[in-house]
Amino acid sequence: MTANRTVYLAGDLVFRPGAVAIFDRLRALCRQAGLEGLAPFDGQAGIESLPPGLDTILKIVIADRDLMDRCAGGIFCLDPFRRSADMDPGTAVEIGYMMAQGKPLAGYTTDGRPYPEKVAAYRNAAWNDTLRPRITPDAPVGSGAMEDADGILAHSDGMVQNGMTEGFIRLSGGMVAVHDDFYQAFAIAAADLARRLP
Question: Any idea which UniProt keywords this protein has (predicted)?
Answer without folding.
Answer: Transferase
